[in-house]
Amino acid sequence: MGSLNDKLVISDLSKGYKDKDVLRGVSFTVRDGEFLSILGPSGCGKTTLLRILIGLLHPDTGTVVKDGVDITNAAPDKRGMGIVFQNYALFENMNVVKNVEYALMIKKETRPTAHEKALQMIEAVGLSEYVKAMPKNLSGGQQQRVAIARTLALQPDIILFDEPMSALDVATRLSMRKELKSIQSSFGTTMIYVTHDQEEAFALSDRIMIMDNGVISQLDTPETICEAPANDYVRSFVLDNLRAKIDSLSKYAPGLRE
Length: 258
Hints:
This protein is an alpha/beta fold. The protein has 8 helices and 10 strands. α2 (96-106) crosses α3 (114-124), α2 packs parallel to α4 (140-153) and α3 (114-124) crosses α4 (140-153). The longest helix has 18 residues, at 170-187.
C-alpha cells in the first residue's frame, strides 16, 4: 500500500524478451508533484519501464496503480499521462500552434477551446513569438519546448520524458533544465525523467532511481546517494561519472562545481 501522497505505486513489474529479462520484480512509488529521474546505462531497463507506465508495453507480471486505481491494462489515452519523446515527434507540415492544438482537435470535448489552450501553453513555454513558425525553422531547444507545450495542453497530471535532451548542445541543455523546473513549479505536474546522464539527473531531481540490469540499485534523494551510495555500482556509475561530467560542464556554468 502506498501513502496518501503517492501518485503512482508500481509493484513487482517484470518484462522479458525471449531469453532476456529486461525488468525483474521492480517496485517503487512516485510522489505527487515530484521530479523523479530514472537513471541508468543503455540496456538497464529504464525505457522499457517508461513504456509500461505510459501503456505502450504490457508487463509480464506486476501492477501500475495511479491515484489508487489499477491502470496496468488501461489504454495510453486513459491514463492521464503525457510523454515527451527523444526526437520530439513534431509534425513537420504544421506550424507551432497547429502542432500544439492537434491532439485537442481530435477530441470532441476539447475542440472548441483547442486554439485558445494551445496559445496559453505556447506562452507558458516562452514561444509566443513563434506560433506561426514551422519546426524546421526552430532550434532543438525550441522544438523541445513545442513538444512540452503539446503535452501540457492535454493537462496530464504525470509527464514522462524519454532522454529528451540527448540531441541538444550543452548550453541549450543547461537552459532547458531551468525551463523544465519552472514549468513543473507552475503546473505542479509530476515528472518522470529517463536519462543516462548523471549530472542531468542530479541537477533536476527530487529523487533519483538508479537502475542496473533490470533492477533498482538505489532510490533516494541526490544528497543521500552522494553521501551513502548503496553499492559499488552506484559509487562507480553515478558518482565517478558525475564528477567527470561536472568537470566537463564547468566551463559553461562555473557554479556547477559548488
